Amino acid sequence: MCNNFNKKFIDEAAKALNDQNDEVSNEDTGYMDQATAIAIKGVIQNEGGPFGCVIVKDGEIIGRGNNKVTSTNDPTAHAEIIAIREACKHLDSFQLEGCIIYTNCEPCPMCLGAIYWARPEKVYYGCNKTDAAKIGFDDNFIYQELNLELSKRKIPFEQLNREEALKAFKTWKEKEDKIEY
Ligand SMILES: [Zn+2]
User: Fold this and answer.
1) Would you call 80 a catalytic residue per the annotation?
2) Mean per-residue pLDDT for 150-157?
């Protein structure tokens, strides 16, 4: 009797836990599937690469984006960047506080940087960068470049006229009514 009661209790607790997990999982999976659907639509409409992204805050999608590099001649028109811009516009803020990003592929270094600047709460990704490399989107070389001396990179970086450039920093430092971020 006691065992039966315990079993019933454990079964019910397990079921409740499963339901809860399913609910969270289904919701997240649903947003990820929307990111994938946006990516597929973009490919079919010849807008760019197979990448899509949605940004969610409090259960509402506030930003969407799919890759539009080739259709807009904009090398920065990645899904995440477009979605971040839309979400920030919606929030009237330069921070994605409390937001979750769903992107159908692990972000490239540019989008990774943008995500860190935007400071969302979490990122879910679908495919990984190895999957992307297999279809010709290999951003591994950019990660490799990060470890090289600036002058040894494929695109050489050379310092020039630091004294003059520092004047902008001095202006910022001395400005009293600046919006810090
Ligand atoms: Zn990117």
Assistant:
1) yes
2) 90
